[in-house]
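User: Hi! I'm working on a homework problem where we have to compare a predicted structure to a textbook description. Could you give me the structure for the chain below?
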Amino acid sequence: MTGARKDRNIKIGAGKKKSTSSPNSTSWSRPAEGRKDVAPAPKAQPRQNPAPRRDNNRSNNNRSNNNRRGNQTRQGNRSSRPQQKSPLMEEEWARVIDHDQTRNEIIAVSEVKMLLCRLKPKAGITPLLTTARVYIGTDSQAREHIDQVLGMTNLGRVANHVKADLPLVIQIFIEENEQHFIKAFFNIAGNMSLKQHAFELLSGVGNKKAMQMVEARGSSGFESLSALNEACNIDAGELLAKRFLAELDDREMQPRLLDLLLPVKA
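Assistant: Happy to help. Predicted structure tokens:
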């Protein structure tokens, strides 16, 4: 048998045939049963706020107590702070500059620190003249003309005629206490630096005039303002009053003769 015939006689298996269901077969598929009933999900119960704990009440009470204590402490600190006293509390006498009857008010300058102040006169008193000396101390029974000290003021708040009269009031005060100012300033004033003498703090006094005053003073000093004025051809009371006025107007001016020469010592 040749190779070709041999190939033709080779039997090839048809493989396993698929089984087909015969129409007479008694097997059948399970009928559809439908969708199973699903139990409804339980409804969520509304959340109830828990009752406040006692600890919270305690903490709230502690906070309120702490706040009360803090407020009491702050109030105690405020009440314990020392109240600042007015500089006028140390003043006893003042010189009248202006008595305004329309406003029922007196503008005056104190004698200890040269403070401008507002005063309320007593009812029915005779209008006070400029330069009049009035008692403004704490002893109300000793006040003859003044009913109440209203407070302090400054040059920027007073009328122009008050500013014009103030130098004269200060000058009269200086001349009435000339021995104090002679001893405290004119007889002991010296050099402030190599180029400036203390006399040059006075208005209109330069280095040449200051040296003339020092030479006129000599070793014995001046006996009075009139002797000083005659020897140096000046008005010492007026010059010192102008310096005081400039320092009242400018609180930053240095050195301050107001602080160095006041209060007046008897």
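For your comparison, note the following. Residues 21-28 have pLDDT under 50 and may be disordered. Helices lie at 3-8, 54-80, 160-176, 178-186, 207-217, 225-232, 236-249, 257-261. Good luck with the assignment!
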